[in-house]
Specification:
Blueprint (H helix, E strand, L loop, with lengths): L9 E6 L3 H8 L8 E5 L11 E6 L3 H14 L3 E5 L3 H10 L5 E3 L4 H8 L5 H7 L6 E4 L15 E5 L13 E3 L2 H13 L7 E5 L8 E9 L2 E14 L5 E7 L6 H11 L3 E10 L4 E8 L9 H4 L3 H9 L15 E4 L1 H15 L7 H7 L3 E4 L8 H21 L1
Parallel strand pairs: 1-2, 1-4, 2-3, 4-5, 15-16
Antiparallel strand pairs: 6-9, 7-8, 7-9, 10-11, 10-13, 11-12, 12-15, 13-14
């Protein structure tokens, strides 16, 4: 697969080398298009056969400059995709890059989306529901919140560099738990970060819906939604299994938000369905690609391809507007290990037997890494896990 022979002027350039990046670069394969990985460290995405070229540099800008020079040398340009909130913010702050088109290149909009509380006044105006919330500028201020009902879901206003050292989100059931949380924040050096506390919406993780769309000047062109099947930690964590299916109820709220922001590009949002009133409540915004994006192709609604082809002026009529079949995305070993073993000690109510787990793997299943068409990332991951295991054994000695 030679990038110089790509039929299109723009080549997908994916920032990062993790599972998000792997899923993103694989999303173009049915077009016969490979891409470029630009990252600060080696990772699983670099071993995909669809990562035709990789640029690993400590300085991201330097890596982009080298990738841009390479593209220019073969007469191509880059279609630049962020795979994390950090990358989304960093590249939009650059403003422009020679020889690149930056997807989602409106700094004001990106900043508004990444601030979980910044959009609330807009939601009040346009009629989008969100949980009763309070923003605090540092951890100790959580102790002064007395007008919200327990349990509370607490998370950073901007998650960049937070989840590297702390839980992505935490559910607190009483005042003593709040005090302990504040102490843990201090120990982690995160006590000066702005936080949002929300009244927790009851219901299982299957009421959590992730919505992803290609939006053009506020108009939603293609959209898809998936529901969490499993996450870790179970009550407030990262998806380890998600089911793509037709979930029309979430679309009106998401479309309202896209119109009000005049959003342009790729937009992911998380909602939670509240069975008490039948409404979908906004939880989060991610103006970038995401973890289980590799499952888009078999659903029929490849949102990422739609955005890319439309940008190139190519027809996208062949990409349907509704999910054609249900697809289950699974985070390889992590999903089964957490469901069968890790939950036993800390979350026994969420533990599954092997038989129960196997029954959940019905229909079309797409794994985050395992892929018969692209086997090298799985082999790389297995090698890395073996290295980690060996290191742990020797440390114990």
């Amino acid at each position: 697969m030679k990038l110089a022979q790509c039929p299109y002027e723009y080549i997908p350039v994916v920032l990062g080398s993790n599972m998000n990046s792997l899923g993103t670069i694989r999303a173009f394969r049915s077009l016969g298009v490979g891409g470029i990985i630009v990252a600060e460290e080696d990772g699983v995405a670099c071993y995909s056969k669809y990562a035709v070229k990789t640029f690993i540099q400590d300085d991201l800008v330097e890596g982009l400059e080298k990738a841009g020079a390479y593209l220019a040398s073969i007469g191509k340009k880059g279609y630049l995709l962020a795979t994390s909130d950090d990358y989304a913010l960093r590249v939009t702050r650059l403003g422009s890059l020679p020889n690149f088109y930056i997807v989602n290149n409106n700094l004001k909009t990106i900043q508004a989306c990444l601030d979980k509380t910044g959009l609330y006044p807009l939601f009040d105006e346009i009629g989008v529901d969100y949980p009763r919330s309070r923003r605090v500028e540092e951890g100790k201020d959580l102790l002064d919140i007395h007008d919200l009902k327990f349990p509370l879901l607490v998370k950073p206003v901007v998650s960049i560099h937070f989840s590297d050292r702390f839980d992505k989100a935490t559910i607190l059931h009483e005042e003593e738990a709040v005090k302990n949380y504040v102490e843990r924040l201090k120990e982690a050096g995160l006590d000066r970060r702005a936080l949002v506390a929300q009244e927790y919406i009851p219901g299982s993780e299957q009421n959590l819906i992730y919505y992803f769309a290609y939006v053009k000047k506020g108009e939603t062109i293609r959209e898809v939604a998936s529901r969490k099947i499993r996450q870790y930690p179970p009550n407030a964590g990262t998806t380890t299994a998600g089911l793509y299916e037709d979930i029309p109820g979430v679309c009106p709220a998401a479309q309202k938000i896209n119109r009000a922001l005049a959003f342009d590009g790729l937009h992911g949002m998380e909602f939670k369905y509240d069975p008490r009133d039948g409404k979908y409540y906004f939880l989060d915004s991610n103006p970038r690609t995401y973890l289980d994006i590799s499952a888009l192709e078999p659903t029929g609604v490849n949102v990422l391809q739609a955005a890319y082809l439309d940008f190139l002026g190519q027809p996208i009529d062949f990409i349907p507007k509704k999910v054609q079949k249900k697809v289950l995305w699974v985070k390889d070993h992590e999903d089964i290990l957490r469901a069968l073993f890790f939950n036993k000690k800390k979350y026994p109510d969420f533990t599954l037997s092997y038989g129960q787990y196997k029954k959940t793997l019905q229909g079309t299943v797409v794994f985050a890494v395992k892929d018969a068409d692209d086997p090298m990332p799985r082999r790389y991951l297995n090698r890395e896990r073996m290295k980690t295991l060996v290191q742990k054994i020797f440390r114990r000695r």
